[in-house]
Specification:
By secondary structure, this protein is α+β, with helices and mostly antiparallel strands. The protein folds into 4 domains: 230 residues, no CATH class; 41 residues, no CATH class; 72 residues, no CATH class; 244 residues, no CATH class. Helix 4 crosses helix 11. It is globular. This is MrfA-like Zn-binding domain-containing protein.
């Protein structure tokens, strides 16, 4: 697989802080660089590089990671990294980069609310789209026609683009030149390969030609029915040409749009050979404009061999080309690694030699990374967590300082259902999330050719880092009895309900997956019955725990371990209900207390009992998809089993209360009849 080099002008540098400093040095009225803020979780899942972030007065697009380097360069020393070797290896595979590291967002907490600490850190962003419309006179023009104002150091929400001499719309009385705010023109062009471009309004209104009256025609966007899709009309005030935007909608309208130019605005670059895909009309606030491609892990303690691999990797990166030249001279190596890799100081020469030999092993090539990516299963990230959770902690609140994990085994209460075989209190945990790219139009799990569809975060073919977040929290881990799960699964797979759900999934796949999913067998994307069981149990427990733990249901999330046995991994059937926060204090212990025997008994009992009833019954209890229906749930709705987007890892798919408890007309409940 060949590496891509993007067409990019090195002169067009994005440096918001540098630009603000130049204005200050020139003595002009300073426009501050800061235009808004966001939580790390929103910046990685909703508003990452390449997305469009809606600010009070305009929209911005966080830039690619290349432009973040100027932010890090303002601080002395190397940028900080997040230690999560298992996730880091997956990121390296997906980025095809053997040296990639995980870095946090460039941010520093403020000691006081009005402090200027950390003002030299932040995420660089571009104004996008750069076509704007005056709210007073409907003038449609690009940014240079408007004046930017952002002069209050602590009110970035007041940053605005203004039409300085707006005379209002035709026919308005008392027309005087006044300042009017401008808003983004909301139409864009997107293609399935992740490219995004401005809508060519001048070409559109003139049907691909040029204005007959002016070289730079005066355009207007007339819109009197906001909120009804492509309802605006583009008007050329120079030649009186008019064309409505609704002509660009649908399959017929798509043929009237230009071919894709292969533009990546977050990278300020174009594909070297163009694109050629047919573009689609896209609105600025469309939900399918940006889908994050991210991976996450719960950090588990490392084995001795894993620690050795991690240390060898640090040595390899720190030494670079010196590894081959001085690898046989331990004294020289120690001198080179001083103040770079502290762990080397306590090693003997034989131990150091073994690490140097491991560090000298050849790194995977781009082709090998590509082959790994095609064979990789996301479940591989969960298997080490499941394996570690099978061990009993050495004692109550047993800590592991490096991973931050603190576990305690809980005794099973006598009234806890026998189907739940094990309970652990996860008193502290550390979750790391990394962004590896994004897709447009189709979500990551809706395509069959992810390596081609995944839009990069950097112009570099082998980026040296990607952005990650680190969350601290607590949780409750429940494990189901494998022998009972296996017997129950055999019974479900032979049932008419499972057959109907399987056929609905096939229809859903054919109806909703992108054209690149045609070569994929739908059954390979269907979760097994045990996943539906564990998933539904997690949802009803989240609902019940939220009423007793002090956290809202939206603050609780699930991590599901549910897969049948294979040649490479043991069978799993368990779940972790957790809550995490990105601040240093983590959480307050209200959730982990629910793992105590008496409390957990009541929560499980009440959750299962509530699962037997729904305010939408009997419609909900008997819901089974029939042709042509293609929804991916059975007896589940927002009244009984569905959860918020922040809680569910599958967007409320693969849920059915009939697999959890017996409902009228069904005897497939894993926990049987609950009273």
């Amino acid at each position: 697989m060949t590496e891509t080099t993007y067409l990019h002008s090195a002169e067009n540098v994005l440096d918001p802080l540098g630009d603000a400093e130049k204005e200050e040095e020139a003595g002009t009225k300073r426009n501050y660089a800061k235009v808004g803020s966001g939580r790390p979780s929103s910046l990685i899942y909703t508003y990452g590089p390449g997305s469009i972030m809606d600010l009070p007065q305009f929209t911005v697009m966080p830039a690619g990671l290349d432009d973040w380097e100027r932010i890090w360069a303002r601080r002395d020393g190397a940028p900080p990294t997040i230690h999560a070797p298992r996730l880091r290896e997956v990121v390296r595979m997906m980025l095809r980069s053997p040296n990639a590291q995980l870095r946090p967002f460039p941010w520093q907490p403020k000691k006081l609310s009005m402090s200027r600490d950390g003002d030299d850190l932040g995420v660089p962003a571009r104004i996008f789209p750069q076509w704007m419309r005056c709210t007073g006179c409907d003038m449609l023009a690009q940014l240079p026609k408007f004046r930017y104002r952002n002069t209050h150091p602590f009110r970035p929400d007041e940053a605005v683009f203004e039409h300085e001499k707006c005379y209002g719309r035709k026919g308005q009385s008392g027309r005087k030149g006044v300042r009017r705010p401008a808003v983004p023109a909301r139409y864009l062009l997107a293609c399935p390969d992740g490219h995004l471009d401005e809508f060519p309004y001048d070409l559109w209104v003139h049907e691909g030609g040029s204005c007959s009256e002016a070289e730079f025609p005066a355009l207007k966007m007339v819109d009197r029915t906001a909120g009804k899709g492509a309802s605006a009309t583009i008007v050329c005030a120079s030649c009186a040409a008019r064309r409505p935007m609704n002509e660009a909608q649908g399959e017929v309208g798509r043929a009237k749009l230009p071919k894709c130019r292969g533009r990546h605005p977050h990278l300020d670059a174009f594909e070297p050979n163009g694109c050629g895909n047919q573009t689609r009309l896209m609105l600025v606030g469309a939900s399918n404009l940006w889908f994050a491609a991210s991976e996450s892990i719960i950090v588990m303690p490392e084995s001795t061999s894993e620690q050795a691999v991690d240390l060898a990797d640090k040595i390899r990166i720190a030494l670079g080309e010196n590894l081959e030249q001085f690898g046989s001279q331990p004294n020289v190596i120690r001198a080179l690694l001083k103040d770079k890799v502290d762990e080397v100081e306590g090693l003997s020469d034989p131990e150091l030699a073994a690490l140097l030999e491991k560090a000298a092993e050849p790194v995977p090539t781009v082709e090998e990374h590509q082959d790994q990516l095609e064979r990789w299963d996301p479940v591989d990230l969960l298997v080490p967590e499941w394996n570690y959770l099978q061990r009993d902690p050495l004692g109550s609140a047993h800590p592991d300082e490096k991973s931050g994990l603190v576990l305690s085994k809980r005794q099973r209460g006598e009234d806890l259902p026998a189907e739940i075989s094990r309970v652990l209190a996860v008193e502290k945990l550390r979750k790391v999330n990394a962004l590896v790219g994004f897709t447009r139009i189709d979500a990551m799990d809706r395509v069959g050719d992810l390596p081609r569809r995944l839009v990069p975060l950097s112009r570099a073919p082998r980026p040296l880092w990607t952005v990650a977040t680190e969350d601290l929290g607590e949780g409750v881990y429940l494990q189901l009895d494998e022998s009972q799960v296996e017997a129950w699964e055999d019974r479900v797979e032979a049932s008419p309900i499972w057959h109907a759900l399987r056929e609905a999934h096939r229809r859903n796949f054919n109806n909703r997956f992108s054209e690149t999913g045609a070569s994929v067998d739908p059954d390979t994307r269907l979760k097994p019955p045990r996943y539906w069981l564990v998933h539904t149990l997690a949802h009803v427990l989240i609902r019940e725990m939220a009423m007793k733990c002090g956290y809202s249901a939206a603050s609780l999330s699930e991590r599901l371990y549910a897969w049948p046995a294979s040649d490479t991994r043991p069978a799993a059937a368990g779940l972790l209900i957790a809550t995490t926060a990105s601040d240093s204090d983590g959480t307050l212990g209200g959730l982990v207390q629910l793992s105590e025997a008496r409390r957990l008994e009541g929560i499980v009992r009440d959750a299962l009992y509530r699962a037997t009833r729904c305010s939408s019954d009997p419609v909900c209890a008997k819901r089974t998809p029939q042709d042509p229906e293609d929804f991916l749930h059975g007896a589940a709705c927002h009244c009984c089993a569905m959860a918020s987007e922040t809680s569910c890892e599958r967007a409320n798919r693969f849920l059915d209360r009939r697999f959890l408890v017996d409902l009228p007309g069904s005897r497939l409940g894993f926990f049987g009849h609950v009273v």
